[in-house]
Amino acid sequence: MSRIKARFDALKAANRAAFIPFISAGDPDAATSAALLESLPGAGADLIELGMPFTDPMADGPAVQASSLRALKSGATMASTFDMVRGFRSKDIATPVILMGYFNPVHAWGAAKFAADAAAAGVDGLIIVDLPPEEDETLRTAANKAGIDMIRLVTPTTDAARLGKVLNGASGFLYYVSVAGVTGTKSFTESDVRDALTRIRAASSLPVAVGFGIRTPEQAGSIAKFADAVVVGSAIVALAEAVGPAQLVAKTGELCRALAGSTHDARNDKVRA
Amino acid sequence: MSKIPNSLRTGPDARGHFGEFGGRYVAETLMPLLLQLETAYQDARKDPEFARELGDLLTHYVGRESPLYFAPRLTAHFGGAKIYLKREDLNHTGAHKINNCLGQILLARRMGKTRIIAETGAGQHGVATATVAARFGLPCTVYMGEVDIARQKPNVFRMNLLGAEVRSVTSGSRTLKDATNEALRDWVANVDDTFYIIGSVVGPHPYPMLVRDFQAVIGEEARAQMLAQEKKLPDLVVACVGGGSNAIGMFHPFLDDASVEIHGVEASGEGVDTDRHAATISRGSPGVLHGTRSYLLQDKDGQVIEAHSISAGLDYPGIGPEHSWLKDMGRVQYFSATDKEALDAFMLLSKLEGIIPALESAHALAHLARIAPKMGKDKAIAVCLSGRGDKDIFSVAEKLGRTI
């Protein structure tokens, strides 16, 4: 069984939503970023999204853009991202790692080779933001062969006619983009997200994660009541602008523990009362 | 290698691919919009009223058709082939960009969109977009890199006069590439009411197709005008290439004319062997940026390399996917001209013909210096003079060490 499925099965049995933090590989520098990655499971992360830095992150807001550029400036490459995952895997064999980013660096590496190398490093899933189902066949085939999940994005603009296309070939879990916009800028409306998840669940049995626009423990808790996972990115990577590398692991841990706490307790009646 | 089909004018395929190039590499949020745009465009193409309205605007608002002008003193200067200039510089707003903007804003109206956004490099597309937005009474936001704003101040003021908001883009290289990122970010956040008027044959399908179709009027006119004036087709067709919209518009009607040689001219900035150029075809490799797969200036890790050219309109690390396809099959040959060569051509045309060309177009003219003298006097070249140089006088003066 894949790490992703095992993790979601266990959370389902415990009636808990997963907390998924996002960080950019190599931000603000290789050593701090590796320490940050290793610290996340202890701070409540059930799965981890690791950003592959790109010069032109066109679906991201200012916080993730800045994070991506900081990583590149400190020398991050695809090879160093794989190294980071390998290092993490030598210490943690259970927490799923999802690589998230844009297609061009994957294309430059070679899609088939990329899938094989990612699997060998210990990667469990891929989210390629600018690779819709119409264009992902080469990478999807290679990822399936390598045992890596292709996680598809469903958005507020994905209508009923298109949903089937998005679900066909999806594996691991689905990522519901809670707002039409870039990461970290707009806020979702809980009832809209609820309605969207009802539609998605009628068509798919995969777990559904919700992200884009979730910044606070309160927001995470409100989504965790009904979603299978809550993704927080911009609020976490923005910390690197506020604090130096020396405090970054501690500060990120604080924020993640708060986000994870409200995510994990959201369906617990005693806490809610 | 792409196989050569019977006609080179039928692309792209149903998925928006020109051979291995093109496609729709965008976030899922935008996919339904691109599908709607494609449907709206296919409907418009079949609607005679759409063609009538666009044709009417091109005639009475833009001033088409634009002349195909025989340049006697430039021809004599090079001493070879007869040189004809396709005068897109005489269009309303001073460049070819308006042809496409009118087509797209008519589409926006058909789709019920109420807000217009655009990216711009030199500012010509921004001005053209602001112009059509004013003409149809729609609010307009133009994204422009901070660097380009500094070197194209007259166009920024023009856009403001036309009622558009110019938003300065301070991310990345602060030029056209980053302005395009910001426009895409705006679009993804305002999908319900906003129409994105892309200025070149780049971006996700169907943009490279529809922008080409709206610009093909350039080559259609030039072909008929050359037949009327020279009683034959040109031997060579030349245009500058950034994203490549004036070039594809000029080239497309000639693609199936086997006797016509076609040359695209990229900007090689300070030289293709320096790290300051925009020669995507000469020095790039296939990659994915802004929704399309095409030649791209990138490092071995797939990170996009910033382009450089004296001409803001050519300062783009990508190129339209159809150009990449035409390059790989050998139908169009791509060359480059440096900042200095373009400057020399800028001065030359001004002095010999009384026409101040845009710095972008000056790259196409610079190529003539290498090729026209080697061609016989019985040969004819049609060059797309894509825009006028009024907007460039400040940056040219600066290069010449003069203050105005």
Brief digest:
The complex is a heterodimer of chains A (about 270) and B (about 400). By secondary structure, chain A is of the alpha/beta class. Chain A has 14 helices and nine strands.
Structure description:
The complex is a heterodimer of chains A (273) and B (404). Chain A has helices spanning 3-13, 30-39, 62-73, 78-89, 103-109, 111-121, 137-146, 160-167, 190-203, 217-224, 234-237, 239-242, 245-265, 269-272, and strands at 18-24, 48-51, 97-101, 125-128, 149-150, 152-154, 174-177, 208-211, 229-232. With 273 residues, chain A is of the alpha/beta class. In chain A, strands 5-4-3-2-1-9-8-7-6 form a 9-stranded parallel beta sheet. In chain A, α4 (78-89) packs parallel to α6 and α6 packs parallel to α7. Chain A is globular and about 45 Å long. With 404 residues, chain B is an alpha/beta fold. Chain B is built from 16 helices and 14 strands. Chain B has helices at 31-46, 48-62, 72-78, 97-110, 124-136, 146-151, 153-161, 176-189, 207-215, 217-230, 245-251, 280-283, 321-329, 339-353, 359-371, 393-399; strands at 17-18, 21-22, 68-70, 82-87, 115-120, 140-145, 165-169, 194-196, 236-240, 261-267, 285-289, 292-296, 333-337, 380-385. Classes of the chains: A alpha/beta (273), B alpha/beta (404). Chain A binds chain B through residues 54-61, 65, 69, 72, 77-78, 102-109, 129-132, 134-135, 152-159, 162, 166, 177, 180-182, 185-186, and chain B through 15, 23-33, 35, 171-172, 177-178, 181, 184-185, 188-189, 191-192, 286-291, 293, 296, 298, 300-304.
Fill in the keyword field for this structure.
heterodimer, A: 273 residues, alpha/beta, TIM Barrel, nine-stranded parallel β-sheet, 14 helices, 9 strands, 50% helix, 14% strand, globular, B: 404 residues, six-stranded mixed β-sheet, four-stranded parallel β-sheet, 16 helices, 16% strand
Question: How would the blueprint of this fold be written?
Answer:
The complex is a heterodimer of chains A (273) and B (404).
Chain A: H1 3-13, E1 18-24, H2 30-39, E2 48-51, H3 62-73, H4 78-89, E3 97-101, H5 103-109, H6 111-121, E4 125-128, H7 137-146, E5 149-150, E6 152-154, H8 160-167, E7 174-177, H9 190-203, E8 208-211, H10 217-224, E9 229-232, H11 234-237, H12 239-242, H13 245-265, H14 269-272
Parallel strand pairs in A: 1-2, 1-9, 2-3, 3-4, 4-5, 6-7, 7-8, 8-9
Chain B: E1 17-18, E2 21-22, H1 31-46, H2 48-62, E3 68-70, H3 72-78, E4 82-87, H4 97-110, E5 115-120, H5 124-136, E6 140-145, H6 146-151, H7 153-161, E7 165-169, H8 176-189, E8 194-196, H9 207-215, H10 217-230, E9 236-240, H11 245-251, E10 261-267, H12 280-283, E11 285-289, E12 292-296, H13 321-329, E13 333-337, H14 339-353, H15 359-371, E14 380-385, H16 393-399
Parallel strand pairs in B: 4-14, 5-6, 5-8, 6-7, 9-10, 9-14, 10-13
Antiparallel strand pairs in B: 1-2, 3-4, 11-12
